[in-house]
Structure formats: structure tokens, C-alpha cells
Design brief:
Helices cover 23% and strands 32% of the residues. Strands 5-6-7-10-8-9-18 form a 7-stranded mixed β-sheet, covered by helices on one side. β12 and β13 form a beta hairpin. The two termini are 22 Å apart. Bound molecules: 3-(2-carboxyethyl)benzoic acid. 3-(2-carboxyethyl)benzoic acid binds next to β9 and β13.
């Protein structure tokens, strides 16, 4: 006998679209208020669009990744401690902005506190599973009292994962951690009701297994994550990816070789992801963000991407270039991405 399970009428499908700032704002005028968005170089005043506070280097100007849900009954917004969030009950986009100058604690304690409120948010909203996290740290490579600030951040972040009983090694969420020149410690996070499937890169040591030479506590992230976003689609979230093979930085001082190595790493993560799904993801289709340490390197990096994929590839056309410091001072470029394809997880 077969039992037919009725479609959950309250199910909510997640969609994402990369738009100019003007086009994303006009959605609201058209009465199609999206669930939430992540803005690149966008104003801080749009409540549903937490911004990434880094200078946009690409000619398109300010852009946004607009997250929308179909089948949602209503969108709720609120704050939990220092975290603000929007949710339709199935998916949640949250944001934390901490002004360090106004705080007495060091960065490790602040990261710990931020992640504690982040996890509290997820529990209270009933969207316990992180799909993707974006971390932006002012002066990431600066010394913070005997320990580099990125390493301090890693201390507090990992501690909060332990304390909340969250996977800090295998099963850690996809993430990025970039340096911004000024502003607040900013964390953005997308969560949902089901745990995503983590994906590692066979060319790289898992970041959560980096040796102690990179800091007393490892970074807490998986190389990528696969999420069933409903409606027969699966999303691949690729963490910040750089010119690292094994655990070592490659091509010191050569931004174009670093960009080529990064593309090889992205291709390797995509190949690993494709083994786990019935969908087919491809490098040329990614919606990526390219973080460039030195703005004068932007054209050199764009040339590498366009010669590898063709200038007409969606990855090349939709790329957002941002000025940011990378978490290792010898890295000049880092690329993160997401992409959606029809299919499901292989069981
Ligand atoms: C790397 O591969 C580059 O600390 O959350 C990439 C993605 C990097 C995420 C993080 C750091 C993070 O180690 C750095």
C-alpha cells in the first residue's frame, strides 16, 4: 500500500536573485516586498536589506542578493539581544552590527556574544539550522593585544559553537570572514528548518582542521553547504575560497595566479557537491562575490575570470567586486558564491 503524503500547504520555497539596488527597491514599490536581501554597498537605511559595508569596485554599483519566499503567510521581524532578523517561519535572515568602540570587551568576547545571540535567535524563531554566515571584521589583520584580530574572532566564534552544542567541525556552516576598513563588526546569517549537507574540498585541509600555526582555535566553517530550498531546487552555498592548497597559501604576491588557484578550488568544491546531488552545478553559473585586497588589482582579477570562463558567462557578468582584506595577510583575493539548480540530494 502506498500512503500519499499531502503537500505541506504551509511549505515555503526560497529563491534568490541578484539585482541592482534600484531594481531591488522597486520590488517594494510594485508590492512584491521580498523576504530579505543582502546588499553590497547599499545604504544602511533599508530595514529588509542588511548591507555589506565594503566599497564596490565593479561598475554596476550597489547590488543586492534578494532572498524571497513563495507560499509565505506573513513576514515577521524583530530583535533578539543584539541580533535583528526577518523570518517567514521557515527561513530567517539575520544581522548583527556591533560597534567595538562602544564596547569594553575585546574581539574574542564580542564574537562570542554575537554568536550567542545568533544561536538564541535561531532557536526562538524555529529556524535552527544555519545555511550560510557572512562575517565582516574591521581591521581583520591588525594586532589585537598579542593575537591577530581574525584569530581572536576564531576563539570567540568556536567557543560559542561549543557552548550552544553546535557542530564546530564536520557539519559547520558555510561562511566567509573578510576585513573591512571601518564600521561595525557585522554578521549576516541565513537559516532554515533543515540542516544543510556540508561539502569539503579534496584539495584543501578542512579549515576546522587547520594546524595551530594559523591560530589557537580553528575557523568554524565548511567549504560549502547544500540546501534543499523547495520547489525541486537545491542551493549550493560556497564559502570564501582562496589560493590555499592543503593548508598553505599559494602564489605569494601574484594576484592573477591566486585568482587561478581560487578558480581551481571553486571547481573542486563544485565537483564534490555534484557527487551529492542529482542537480548539476557549474562554475560558469555561479553568482559570486570577489573580494580584492588592493583595488588596483581588480582588472587583473577580472581578466583571469573572463579568460577562464568567457566574458559572457553568468559568473563573469554577475560578479560583484568588493574591496576587502582577506583573513590571511598573504591572500590577495577571495571568491564566495551561491547557485541554485533543479534537483535534489542523493540519498
Ligand atoms: C580559508 O580558506 C580562507 O573564518 O569563516 C574563508 C571562508 C576563510 C571562511 C571564516 C575564512 C572563513 O581559510 C579564509
Amino acid at each position: 500500500m502506498t500512503v500519499r503524503v499531502q503537500d505541506d500547504i504551509s511549505s515555503s520555497h526560497l529563491r534568490v536573485e541578484r539585482l541592482s539596488l534600484a531594481d531591488s527597491l522597486s520590488l517594494v514599490m510594485d508590492g512584491k516586498a521580498p523576504f530579505a536581501a543582502l546588499g553590497y554597498g547599499t545604504p544602511h537605511s533599508v530595514a529588509w536589506m542588511p548591507t555589506v559595508n565594503a566599497r564596490v569596485l565593479s561598475s554596476h554599483g550597489a547590488m543586492a542578493d534578494v532572498w524571497d519566499v513563495t507560499g509565505a503567510q506573513h513576514i515577521e521581524s524583530g530583535t533578539t539581544g543584539i541580533a535583528r532578523w526577518r523570518t517567514d517561519g521557515h527561513w530567517l535572515l539575520g544581522a548583527i552590527d556591533l560597534d567595538e568602540a562602544a564596547e569594553k570587551q575585546g574581539l574574542a568576547e564580542l564574537a562570542h556574544r554575537a554568536y550567542r545571540d545568533l544561536f538564541k535567535t535561531l532557536e526562538q524563531a524555529g529556524t535552527p539550522h544555519l545555511q550560510r554566515i557572512w562575517n565582516y571584521l574591521p581591521q581583520i589583520n591588525a594586532d589585537g593585544g598579542g593575537l591577530e584580530r581574525y584569530r581572536q574572532f576564531n576563539l570567540g566564534r568556536q567557543e560559542a559553537f561549543f557552548e550552544a552544542g553546535r557542530a564546530a567541525f564536520e557539519g559547520a556552516p558555510a561562511a566567509c570572514a573578510l576585513g573591512i576598513h571601518q564600521g561595525t563588526l557585522s554578521i549576516r546569517f541565513l537559516a532554515g528548518q533543515a540542516a544543510p549537507l556540508p561539502v569539503e574540498n579534496p584539495r584543501q585541509v578542512s579549515a576546522y582542521r587547520y594546524p595551530e600555526t594559523y591560530g589557537p582555535r580553528s575557523p568554524t566553517f565548511s567549504r560549502a553547504a547544500l540546501s534543499d530550498i523547495g520547489d525541486g531546487n537545491i542551493a549550493l552555498f560556497i564559502s570564501g575560497t582562496a589560493s590555499i592548497v592543503g593548508h598553505e597559501t599559494q602564489h605569494h604576491g601574484d594576484v592573477q595566479e591566486q585568482a587561478r588557484e581560487t578558480l581551481r578550488n571553486l571547481a573542486a568544491v563544485i565537483a564534490a557537491a555534484n557527487e551529492r546531488v542529482t542537480a548539476t552545478f557549474s562554475l560558469a553559473e555561479l553568482d559570486c562575490v570577489v573580494y580584492v585586497r588592493h583595488p588596483s588589482d581588480t582588472d587583473a582579477v577580472r581578466d583571469v575570470i573572463e579568460s577562464a570562463l568567457g566574458a559572457d558567462a553568468p559568473m563573469a557578468r554577475h560578479a560583484v567586486y568588493l574591496e576587502a582584506d582577506i583573513c590571511r595577510s598573504d591572500l590577495l583575493v577571495e571568491i564566495e558564491a551561491h547557485t541554485v539548480a533543479a534537483g535534489g540530494l542523493r540519498v
